[in-house]
Amino acid sequence: CLIDRILTRANYDRRERPEYGAEALRVNISAYVLNMPEVSFTKHRGALTLDMYFRQTWSDPRLRFPQESKPSRFTKIKGGRELLDEIWVPDTFFVNELRSESLDTAVWIQDGRVKWSQRLRVTCTQLSAGQDFSVFPFDTQQFSLEIESYGYSAADLRYAWETEDSFILSPEITFYDFQLLGDKEETIEVGRDVAP
Known about the structure:
Distance between the termini: 44 Å
Number of strands: 9
Largest sheet: 7 strands, mixed
């Protein structure tokens, strides 16, 4: 099996991020929101459930195909959870999640480039407590979906949007009693724990 040959040849350790000790690894992300099946509000905060495809892409030079396998016979390795158990993957989480569920997952490796796609259901809460609901439901509320690494600082792992329009809402999303005004992507670098 090609993946076994690659992992053995590279003396692969899935606990170590790609190019450990070098500059921060860039993980490109994108999301396609299929549905927003639930929006709820309590006295002080709202919650929003998203059904979405969440994709992460990164480079892992240890997973480059051996020279003898480079012809077009092997262009991609595709797998699911069993392949994810063999390779390093980012420890991405949603900071403001109340709960999440991975419904399906797929991973592709193409000569050192890894793409991990998940179908997720994520329920997130508004980040700031004490929202003003005094004119609810005749007001505007904002929800954020904040993404971070659980164990790596920005010195080791950095997230970036895959393209300028990497967060897409399906045009099929509709609400009976709410109006969706729009969306925007934003990147905020919190801090870099870099040794002097």
